[in-house]
């Protein structure tokens, strides 16, 4: 079929000659030296770049899979707040009082009272809490409100 179309468009079965440089075939546009270096570079660079792209994708996928497995197999982490570790100071400071109540040192009086109430509900002696901890919580409230200078607890 192609032969018929070619003979229909070109009855003498000769293809027309190129008249300008844009109509010339690619191999006739360049000098032999420029054609060799340019075409050789393109012929060699394309598979090289394709290979590098495949290798980079494979390494990125491998790293991603390893990171995902490490993420999934890590031990579960407790979602609890970190509390102050250590004992009480002989004389309570404002910093220690703020740590006991779970507030900032510069908290307002209403925040101090609210925090004191929450901590006391959890540690009240009538609800099974310790008398020592209750006295320290009360002392922390007094220090934060400025009622005492941290004179120490009864215990």
Describe the fold and architecture.
11% of the residues are buried. This protein starts with a helix and ends in a 10-residue tail after the last helix. It is built from 6 helices and no strands. Helix 5 packs antiparallel against helix 6. The protein is rod-shaped, with a radius of gyration of 42 Å. It folds into 2 domains: 1-74, no CATH class; 94-145, Orthogonal Bundle (Helix Hairpins). It has 155 residues and is mainly α.
Helix content: 55-70%
Task: Count helical runs.
Answer: 6
Query: What can be said about the biggest beta sheet?
Result: none
User: Residue ranges: pLDDT <50 for 5 or more in a row?
Assistant: none
General form: rod-shaped
Rg, alpha carbons: 42 Å
Distance between the termini: 109 Å
- Taken as a percent bin, the fraction of beta residues is under 5%
Number of strands: 0
Q: What class, by secondary structure content? A: mainly alpha
Mean pLDDT: 77
Q: How many domains, in number, for the residues?
A: 2
Strand/helix succession? HHHHHH
